[in-house]
Specification:
single chain, about 190 residues, alpha+beta, Nuclear Transport Factor 2, Chain: A, 2 domains, 6-stranded mixed sheet, 5 helices, globular
Length: about 190
């Protein structure tokens, strides 16, 4: 109730000032900066932004499963950098080439947990997923955590700028060590 009464007082005060401005044009000069400050509001991240980022995140997951480099091309930022779970660092073109040539290939990416933090023009998504596939043609399977950093472009679209994947300790066999793929045992 207090909030509603305060709003009414604020609105009635504004109405009084506007009436005074009509009677005395000099008051308009004083009110112009305040009016501009009220009309210009910075973008504040909210639920809609979270949903947009999660949709892009899901589209990237689907594109990885289908080796759809066209979709990935659209959603990866031009200055994209990715660190795969085996320690391989790739820029956008290298990553798209690895996916296109099936050097990095995924048959399962089942998300078990996902957390998101959205700021005005960036977002961080931390995901836990059960993954099966191959990295640099070496089979991998297990539980991984991914950190993805998104940024909102001038066109308003969210793009993946950076990601890093890490195996959850104790999950699956030990086919990776020290950032290098380990040859499979025969």
């Amino acid at each position: 109730m207090r909030y509603a009464m305060g709003k009414l007082r604020t609105q009635s005060g504004l109405i009084r000032l506007l009436c005074l401005a009509l009677l005395c044009p000099a008051v308009l000069v004083l009110l112009a900066p305040a009016a501009r400050a009220l009309s210009i509001r910075p973008h504040r991240p909210g639920h809609g932004d979270q949903q947009q980022v999660l949709r892009v995140d899901d589209q990237i997951r689907t594109a990885l499963l289908a080796a759809d480099t066209g979709t990935l091309e659209r959603f990866l930022a031009d200055d994209f950098l990715g660190i795969s779970a085996n320690g391989t660092l790739s820029d956008k073109q290298q990553y798209l080439r690895r996916i296109g040539k099936h050097e990095h290939q995924f048959s399962r990416i089942n998300i078990t947990d996902r957390k998101i933090r959205v700021q005005t023009s960036s977002a961080v998504v931390v995901t836990t997923a059960d993954v099966t596939g191959k990295l640099d043609n070496i089979p991998v399977s297990g539980i991984f955590r991914y950190t993805r950093v998104y940024s909102r472009g001038a066109d308003g679209l969210w793009r993946l700028r950076n990601f890093e994947a890490t195996r959850v300790h104790g999950a699956g066999s030990d086919e990776m060590r020290h950032g290098e793929p380990v040859a499979t045992r025969k």
